[in-house]
Write a structure and sequence with these properties.
It is built from 14 helices and two strands. It has 312 residues and is mostly helical. It folds into two domains: 268 residues, ABC transporter involved in vitamin B12 uptake, BtuC (Orthogonal Bundle), CATH 1.10.3470; 37 residues. The protein has a two-stranded antiparallel ribbon. The relative contact order is 0.18.
Amino acid sequence: MLNIIIGAMALGLLWAIMTMGVYITYRLLDIADLSVEGTIVTGAAVAAVWISGGGNPFVATFMALLAGLVCGLATALLHTKLRIPPLLAGILTMIALYSVNLRIMGRANIALLNVDTVFTPIEKLGMVQALAAQGINTKNVAILLTGLVFVALVAGFLYWFFGTELGAAIRATGCNQQMARAQGINTNTMILLGLMLSNGLVGMSGALIAQNQAYSDVQMGTGAIVIGLASVIIGEVLFGTRTFARTLCSMALGAVTYRVIIALVLKAGMSANDLKLFTALTVAVCLALPIFKSYLNTLKKSMTGGKGDAAN
């Protein structure tokens, strides 16, 4: 059971980077960016091709980040320059990336067996190897520790960036575009930067996930946006968003919590075929929590005759 929990937490940290990317578009820019499902595969494909060709895995992860930036740029140009609604722009990019990803890999999937990854240096550490004697999977520990480092670096960068004037302009654009333009902010540029940053993080996450699962597949992005939204909602509901720093931590914890829940549900006997349904229901329930809370408050008032509010 311990290995299952550690493995789920490790995988959750890799998805947490994608969750932060989804948060940027979904919450800060108020855009539903479906290109995520193609971008995560692009990141994985670029990293897989680079590593399988003998390249450095850290450089491969950085190249995946750059590829994600290009994917975000494509979506942003469709929306800002061609005036295509953001939802449709994301769908168009996602569809186009399917063919692009096949071109990058040259086939439907690439295996990453017996090659060094970003997790290899930590996996070779003596203290990590010593855990094997306790029956703990050292690969999961290496992934967990590496994931913590990447998440901390990304969260630290985002905290700094969105505290700058440029980051504040992006946030202002998402809150109220008309007011932002009245303050002299070029909202099209802010949307472009936000989408690029979001997709860059998604591409990096795809590279890390591919190295974890030891392959890149053209279909691996199916349902990624739902997983990202589920992690965002779970993080907000369970851990709060009082400050921006807390929000970033909530995104990471939400992704980890989601993966732990999935691991426990599978351990309990749920069929893997039902995972997508379970995820969709989880997101629906989390999104509906404010409505449920309102119903409960109304029911409470009707039962107490409104005396509870008067007492408060």
